[in-house]
Amino acid sequence: MREPGIEALGRIISTQALHDSPERYPLQCHPGTRKRVLESILRWIDADPSPSCRVFWLYGRPGVGKSAILKTITDELAATRPGTSRRRLAGSFFFRRGLSSCENAIHLFPTLAYQMALNVPGMRSAINQAMVFDVTIPSKALEVQISKLIIEPFQRVCGARQSENSTLPPASIVIIDGLDECAESCHQKAILTAITAMFVNHPDIPVRFLIASRYEHHLRSAFDRPPLRDVTQRIYLDDSFPVHEDIRLFFEDKFAEIYNENLDIMKSSARLPWPGRMTIDMLTARAAGQFIYAVTVVRFVGAEGCHPCKQLDNVLASSKATATRRADVGFSALDNLYMHILSAHPNQTLIRDILQLVRNMKCFYISPRSIAALLEIDESAISLAIRSLSSLLAIYPTISEESNEKTTRFAALYGRTDKGIGFIHRSLTDFLEDASRSRRFHIFRSDSHVPTLLRNLALRCLRSMTTRDAPW
């Protein structure tokens, strides 16, 4: 039987923000790491069905592994078989700055509601009815969305169970990662306001929220004020949750993998254990609690087609530079690593132009073919440049399944047969947009500056309209 409401909802959700989308893989905690944090969150999830704390806030500095922790929790909940545990994943949403479908608050509650329709017994029919009655709900204010798509359907489900003298469903868990990566701070606060109002006005709704973000001032202020303060349990990923041993374990395991994957060249150039405890201790100290530093080092050392020993020597050499600028405090090791990787290619102007395009093409992941066409450079040169950046970039489908007509038309202009590229972590975007840190690799935000490169984009588009054999 057709479900027009669910079908309509499915057409406008952000599939790229789901925990099992291609963008989320292989994001997860390394086996054996972050045990204390994971156990604390799971204890909260497994607590009394009606705990006083209906919200759990995980927050910390950039690059400390918040997203990996929430992805690990989400995967564990999603793998739980119905009826075997009180744990139930209602839905998840992973915000990501720079990707339009993942940074717009308007997509949050419709995407969560669609997952609830699939995961929470009874919610499918209730949400379908809501959408059939008013298909424009996803375009309304956030308060209206959460009321019509989540609160009222839950009330109908709970009311039906009470009338049948059935037990109420166990609390369902909603996971929201990277709230600070929602495009506007006012929208971030509006999301928290809508969630808080739900718990204040409808305390019997069997749902809880696990939220992760950076320690931004406006978010801290929202969580520190009642009534949200009174219903929130929190963990700050600081020195009270030591991560150095976890990072050391990550280095040991990953370097062992790199060695085994390159036995033909490693046997004659390195002795086991490689690279030795002193080197791993040094890298662990330089990580300063930032997992993103460790991940970037491993990706760089294990880059395909490169000698791991020479790559590691380059990392160690780059880390000897001393930070003298105030902006380097707390970021010096990561900044030095980023600078070293970006400086490896002889044409650094080309590297900056590529990074500028990757940063500013927000509606979809731009492909190497499109970059070559826009810069009027041979595609093989672009591919070689991107290869030198492989430890900083991730490969994604160029067009997402939920692309709307506008982005599909726009993407067709550039060609959509190959893969697109994006930054592996927001810390790289922060680095590149801060001129005091990235210096010659500094790039501009698309909404605050229109450099020559982007003006060329417009000229290329106009030229393609008048050229029959356009390269798109």
From TrEMBL:
Gene3D superfamilies: P-loop containing nucleotide triphosphate hydrolases (3.40.50.300). InterPro entries: NPHP3-like_N, P-loop_NTPase. Residues 40-214 form the Nephrocystin 3-like N-terminal domain. The keyword Transit peptide does not apply. This is Nephrocystin 3-like N-terminal domain-containing protein. Keywords: Repeat. The keyword S-adenosyl-L-methionine does not apply.
